[in-house]
Design a protein that fits this description.
The chain has 11 helices and 6 strands. The protein is of the alpha+beta class. The chain has a single domain, classed as Outer membrane efflux proteins (OEP).
């Protein structure tokens, strides 16, 4: 199967999975998507890579290097979890004893005493380590989801910046082509003496202005496409064709519900809560270290022919440190301080989230009002005004200054609408990022 078709099939599956119920992918699902470290997608320059916004997100989840880096944090936490479950290794030792006298050697008067010792941890230390490692893994998984949340915003923003530049380019080309036609007609009229040279110069300058806007829009589109390619790890040799339009879809979310969803389910909140639980488990572990562990040993001694009357002996030992000085006072203090830090960090994050959601929601409302004001008739008037004035100018009903003023006004209104549409779409994405999930209504 062609590489582009494989990518499209994969992205379609991701987009379908992410759209069910508007819920975000779980850490396990995100890990499975990002687990394949695929090489950059190299497309011959003669071909075009078509992708919707959902497909772009799918390629990003699979190939973005920043996500792959964060993913290894989960692997590291899994290693810590495995280590926490392990028991201490037993210690094997070999002892040699001898009391040589005249005529006797180590071989016939010594004793060989092999011994095995095992450390037994008391007060639930192993259980607390396992608990701490499990919370650490949950925190790492939530941090991975939060990286997806933040970087997905960058992908969507870059995607719509490409579409913004394309819309600007279309508008600039329309104005340039219109004045190219007007310039050709008035060049003929000037040669026949119907208009003054100053009018021809003004038309030529306006045509150059629109042509410079075309060049500027092309450069902006190239820069935006380059940013998107870097996020997706797509080769510069490929030509991106984006199929999700920069269009207006009214969103009217419930702010109270959004706040609750953000506080309860945003990945960075879950990561901070898991970190707090991990610090609490570490405090319990630190307090458990006040109780010393026990080392139990057993051995067997074999003596030479000139040893004591009993040549074979069994040995048993039981040892534990006496907690006279070190009762892990410093470790307990450090663990208590770590809990306070984690609790303050969680409170800070919750406060930031509430403000982020509130600001993003207010920006969305204002951006929506502006877009709807344009769509209420102003945009259509701007599009029709220049056509009406152009026809009137050809019949001699208006002056050249009226035509130029109408062209500039029409361009300004249409470009302002495109900017307002992009800003509205961006506020929707910002609100989704602040909440931590897609917003569908």
């Amino acid at each position: 199967m062609d590489r582009r078709l494989r990518i499209a099939s994969f992205c379609l599956a991701v987009s379908i999975g992410s759209s069910l119920g508007g819920e975000s992918l779980s850490a396990g699902q995100l890990m499975s998507v990002a687990s394949e470290e695929a090489p950059p997608v190299v497309i011959p320059s003669a071909h075009t890579l078509r992708m919707s916004l959902d497909e772009a997100i799918g390629v990003f989840l699979r190939q973005n290097l920043d996500l792959l880096i964060v993913k290894y944090g989960i692997v590291f936490s899994k290693g810590q979890q495995i280590t926490a479950r392990l028991f201490p290794n037993p210690v094997a030792s070999m002892g040699l004893q001898s009391s040589p006298v005249q005529g006797r050697t180590l071989a016939n008067s010594g004793e060989i005493a092999p011994q095995i010792q095992q450390l037994f941890e008391l007060a639930g230390k192993r259980g607390y380590r396992i608990e701490s490692a499990e919370y650490g893994l949950q925190s790492a998984e939530a941090a991975f989801e939060d990286a997806v949340r933040q970087l997905s915003f960058a992908v969507k923003d870059a995607y719509y910046r490409v579409q913004l530049a394309r819309r600007r380019l279309v508008l600039a080309e329309e104005n340039r082509d219109r004045f190219s036609r007007i310039l050709e007609i008035n060049t003929v009229r000037f040669r026949k003496g119907f208009i003054a040279e100053i009018d021809l110069i003004r038309i030529r300058l306006q045509f150059i202005d629109f042509h410079s806007q075309v060049i500027q829009a092309i450069q902006e589109a190239q820069s935006a496409r380059s940013d998107l390619r870097q996020l997706l790890r797509v080769s510069p040799a490929s030509d991106l064709e984006l199929t999700t339009e920069l269009d207006y879809n009214r969103v009217d979310p419930d702010i109270a519900k959004l706040r609750a969803v953000a506080v309860d389910g945003r990945p960075d909140v879950r990561a901070k809560r898991s970190t707090l639980s991990q610090r609490e488990a570490e405090l319990k572990l630190a307090k458990a270290y006040r109780i010393p562990d026990v080392t139990v040993g057993a051995g067997y001694g074999t003596q030479g022919p000139h040893g004591p009357d009993n040549p074979n002996q069994m040995t048993f030992s039981l040892g534990m440190p006496l907690p006279l000085f070190n009762r892990n006072q410093g470790g307990i203090m450090q663990a208590e301080a770590a809990i306070e830090v984690a609790s303050a960090d969680l409170g800070k994050t919750l406060n930031q989230i509430e403000n982020q959601v509130d600001v993003a929601y207010r920006n969305l409302i204002e951006s929506r009002r502006l877009v709807e004001a344009f769509r209420g008739g102003v945009l259509d008037d701007a599009r029709s005004t220049i056509a009406i004035v152009e026809r009137a100018y050809e019949r001699g009903g208006v002056t050249l200054l009226d035509l130029l003023d109408a062209a500039r006004t029409s361009r300004m209104i249409q470009q302002s609408y495109i900017e307002a549409l992009f800003n509205y779409q961006r506020t929707v994405i910002q609100l989704e990022s602040a909440v931590g999930r897609e917003i569908t209504s």
